Amino acid sequence: MTRPFIVIGGGPGGACAAALLAGQGAPVIVFEKDQFPRHHVGESLQPATFTMLDQHLGLGPTLAAQGFARKYGAVYVWGENREPWTVLFDQRLEQDLPRLDEAGLLGGGYEHAWQVERARFDEILLNAAAQRGADVRFGDEVESVIFEGERAVGVRLRSGERLDAEAVIDASGQRGVIGKQLDLRRVVDDMRCVATYAYYDGMPGVPGPLSRHVQWVVSIDDGWCWFIPVSPTRTSVGVVSRQKGLMALDDFERALREAGFVLDGATRVPGPGQDGLRFARDWSFTSSRFAGPGWWLVGDAACFVDPILSGGVDFAIRSGFRSALAALRVNAGDDEELAAAEAYDEQFRREYKASLRLARYWYGNNRTVGGLFWEAHREIPPHAALTPLRAFVYLTTGRYAAERHLRVFQEWQEKKMFRQLGVDAEALRRARAAER
Which pLDDT does position 3 carry in this prediction? Predict the structure, then answer.
């Protein structure tokens, strides 16, 4: 193999794809148009994200040592019933929480994720790809992908330079290089929102031991608000609404107070926007295809679901790893390559649709919390003995999808080993069938 794999974008999805490819000895070039570290929204992550990063890249200890804010779950206030309800990652914590103080929570060994400063988190992932041998090029922007027929064979940079590629992984975020070039993107018309957000120092969290160790989500008349601690003192707060224009500071802080967030005594952190406010268009969208001959779409380059379930980075990392596994099969024969692309598309689309259904159900004004849990339960296999609440946790923390991904990774490793040992694939298939 002389031509490199080219990854467009060095965010979490692109970094993970590049790291896995480079770790398998493949030549990889990552084109990232920005300089790192750089700001990015999307700080509240799920436990499955860290499971995959540790399994594939061994980053568990590195990430645990960063001092990111712990996240034991989420507290929601939603709909007409204004009583908070809590979703916790660790089932033991559901029973123990009433008798814990904050020290007992932090020292109890309960399962948790982290709420991260994305500039530092993303840099760690991209550094991991570089350490494994990926050639990371900052400041070079991919303008378009070069096709021969339907196959991606290279990229053209903004400078005009052309580079040939073994295959192309598009992790360019909502810029979506391939999606726009091939007109693949489809906006979900009923899920068009705009997020206004900022950072504050000195905001208190929810009452009780969970305090600043959970994500806090509250519905308001015009949408919903998030509260995400990203350090011991700093908090990301935002308002997601369907208004078309940019939100003024007075309206923004009025919405936060309506949600019950305490601004008295807090200090707004200066930002690049007016009054320190930042804006993001959170329109949900999908793509008519997620993969094709010699190309794959990863993370937000493929699809975006309303951020209510905080699954964006989880989606990106999982699809980054999966795209790399599929890309490693480009020279395994046309049939195997096609099967890998189809499997990638099918699994990604199934997960996207499940998240979209839950988001739509969530926004239904006449839906109850119990009904939301049952909706999640429908997505879990019938043999899984889970209550509707635990099914909701299992699905929305990414565990279900991560376990499916790790099974695919294990099967790929077995196939690679059997090829190296000269094991006959048909004989292996017959042996597995006999075991069943």
Answer: 92
Q: Tens digits of per-residue pLDDT, 276-328?
A: 899 887 678 999 999 999 999 999 999 988 877 778 898 899 999 999 999 98
Q: Which backbone phi and psi does 79 adopt, to 5 degrees?
A: 75, -160
- CB under 8 Å to 433, separation ≥6 — which residues? none
Residue 37: is the preceding peptide bond cis (ω within 30°)? yes
Q: May I ask the CATH architecture of the domain 73-111+193-281?
A: 2-Layer Sandwich (3.30)
95: tokens are 């029973």
Tell me how far apart the alpha carbons of residues 214 and 75 are, in angstroms, rounded to a whole number: 7
Point out the least confidently predicted range of 146-155, 173-182, 264-273: 264-273
Taking all residues of the chain, what is their mean pLDDT, rounded to a whole number? 86
Burial of 36 (0-12, 13-18, 19+ CB in 10 A): middle
The answer for 278, left when phi > 0, alpha when psi is -120 to 50, beta otherwise, is: beta
- Read off the tokens for 371: 């009904």
pLDDT at residue 186 in the model: 92
Spatial neighbors of 198 by CB under 8 A, at least 6 apart, are 236, 237, 238, 252, 268, 269, 271, 275, 276, 277, 278
As given in the structure block, the two tokens for residue 101 are 């103080």
Strands 73-77 and 85-88: antiparallel
CA–CA separation, 315 vs 348, rounded Å? Answer: 9
Largest CA distance in the chain: 70
Handedness of CA 88, 94, 98, 103 (dihedral sign): negative
Which residues have CB under 8 Å from 315's CB, separation 6+? 13, 299, 303, 305, 351, 352, 355
Predicted TM-score (pTM) of this structure = 0.87
Are the C-beta atoms of 246 and 279 separated by less than 8 Å?
yes
User: What is the distance between the alpha carbons of residues 285 and 88, in angstroms, rounded to a whole number?
Assistant: 29
Which token pair is 296? Answer: 């794959």
pLDDT at position 79 is 74
**Domain 5-40+49-59+117-189+285-366+398-419 is found in CATH 3.50.50.60:** yes
Query: What residues contact residue 2 under an 8 Å CB cut-off, 6+ apart?
Result: 27
Q: In the chain, what are the domain boundaries?
A: 5-40+49-59+117-189+285-366+398-419, 73-111+193-281
